[in-house]
Amino acid sequence: MNTLNDALAQQVFKAMAVHRPQLAALADLGDDEGDIDIRLLGDQIIRNFPWPIGIEVRRLLSGSMREPDRRRLDQLFRTFERSVQFLAFVMLAQLWKARKEKPFPLPASFVNEFQRRAPLVSLGNLTWMVRQIARIWKTTDSQWFVAEIGTLVTDKFCDELDGWVPERNEMGHYQVNLTGEEVQRRCVMANERIISLLTKLAFFSKYKLVSVRDIKVQKQQYHPAVFDHRIDVLNSGDSDFKTQDLKNPTFTESNAVLLLKGMKNVEEYLNLSPLVIDTHGEQIDTKEKLALRKDVFLFSKFREGDIFYSGAEATERSDLRALSNYAQLVAEFQDMMATLTPAS
Q1: Contacts of 222 (CB under 8 A, 6+ apart)
Q2: pLDDT value for 39
Q3: Residue pair 257/272 in contact by the 8 Å Cβ criterion
Q4: 269 forms bridges with which residues in the sheet?
């Protein structure tokens, strides 16, 4: 019987294979009766999405989420929210970078709203950000680092995102007591909508989300310097991230999470810090760091000079103020706010 997970895995994998043709061959690896191994397709989806999205898909495709119950409904909304959050952060990082490199005017309406909305992550704030940044970007005559965003983020797409917000707010605060039958209906409807979103975001499988662990300089006499980058690829089915050592004639930015167009050239990247950070490289060398979690974290709020994050794997709240680069993260966020909310 075709389950909710089967439909999701088949359709999202098909969309992902368009962007990564080498995956297409896996769709032919069926059993003796020719049936496709849904678990294999699901594993490839998880491994090829950037980890903040991939881990939510992993939870959604787990055995405990097969039934159309309240747990699955909550996870469908969680997957949607994380996916939109990652998209919004990629777009925000690009806008910040572009305005640092070559300042251009921003609408006063955007500046005022951004100053109010940016310090707190909510689905409504994220969908607003996606729409408004896309509109501003069209006036810059510049190319997106993630080229597919230009054709994806239309007013129609943003209207679809906005359609989730009232229901997410209602479900998130448990303001409604749904019957089992209504939960099942909403699961089916939300499943179709999450399939639509994930297939549209399948292009992220072309890119690599990495964390720069260390950069070492090798310089020989009369030869240009070579920079050895030790990076973790943050795309995995089991969060045992793949570590690679890359040599490059120039250098990237240290202690940062980067989105790359490919592993062969680390010179082309979009720095997602401080919106996305990775604490796996942090050494637990003081008593204050004992409570630190090793995880990929996404920005959640900025309040009274402190920056807060929510983990990809960790479900409990984590205090990251003991991080060795915490002051740098705060300074970077403040710089982003100053760049995108200039004083008149």
Answers
A1: none
A2: 87
A3: yes
A4: 260
Q: Give the pairing type, strands 276-278 and 269-271.
A: unpaired
Contact assessment for residue 131 and residue 107, using Cβ atoms and an 8 Å cutoff: no
Contact 311, 297 (CB under 8 A): yes
Q: In whole angstroms, what is the distance from residue 209 CA to residue 52 CA?
A: 10
pLDDT above 70 (res 175): no
Element containing residue 299 per DSSP (H, E) = strand 296-303
Provide the 8-state DSSP code for 328.
Answer: H
pLDDT digits (tens, 9 = 90+) for 193-241: 999 999 999 999 999 998 876 555 555 555 555 555 567 778 776 555 5
Q: Determine the pLDDT at residue 1.
A: 40
Backbone angles phi, psi at 231, to 5 degrees: -130, 155
Gap between the Cα atoms of 154 and 111, Å rounded: 21
* Residue whose structure tokens are 């796996």: 280
Query: Token match 């496709």: residue?
Result: 36
Phi first, then psi, for residue 164 (nearest 5°) are -80, -25
Which alpha helices (DSSP H) does the chain contain, by range? 4-19, 38-48, 51-60, 70-101, 108-117, 123-138, 149-152, 155-162, 165-172, 180-200, 326-340
- Report d(CA 47, CA 64) in Å as an integer: 20
178 HSE (CA, 13 A, CB side): 21
Q: Which tens digit of pLDDT belongs to each residue from 63-83?
A: 888 899 999 999 999 999 999
Q: How far apart are CA 176 and CA 191, in angstroms?
A: 20
**Of 228, 281, 277, residue with least CA distance to 257:** 277
Looking at residue 116, its amino acid is: R
Is residue 117 packed enough to be buried (19+ CB in 10 Å), middle (13-18) or exposed (0-12)? middle
C-alpha torsion sign, points 324, 326, 329, 331: negative
What residue type is 154 in one-letter code?
T
Q: Is residue 92 within 8 Å of residue 275, measured between CB atoms?
A: yes
Q: How far apart are the first and last CA of the chain?
A: 61
